[in-house]
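quick one before i forget lol
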Amino acid sequence: MIFAIYTLVIAFAALNAQTATDKVYIRFVDRSDSTFHLIRLEDPGYQDMTPVESRWIMLGYLSEDDIIDPLSPNGEPTGDDIVNPFVIPIEGSIKGQVAGGALFGPAEYGSPFMPGFAIVTQEHFGKYLYIRVFNATSISKATKYIVLKHPHLVKAESNPVILDIFPDIGWDTEQVWKWIQPPNDLSED
């Protein structure tokens, strides 16, 4: 039932987007359980079919180049990166939020990563889009994040754009969970 509803939402977005050249709907997916296992490194109890109120927040970022810059200690993008300025039309959403949050499908289907779309408007075509998944339901509560290894060049293209995280893009696994602000080292010298 959930997949039927989700398919209808995707179909609706696709039908509306086909004629719209002023924005592109981009969805990063992982049909395997790889992303689910990375999330569970941070929270072993994170559920598949995650209830809405428990889903970790995801933000889309745009960059002028194909380099993903780190976050500052206060959680702001650095370098030429910005938070995607598009706000999804869901009550309580913030700038850059990816619809649906960190949602995983049922275990019997391999716990696929099934977030909603990042929507990029025409003035940002030619920039690179990437996502971060934070370890909390809001940015203010987050302490860590995972980020894609490679951004996607946004251009005017047929909607929706579905991008496979594995094997095409991948998560940056040099240090899977990155601190927004590392905890103070309280050890004595």
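fyi Residues 2-179 form one domain.
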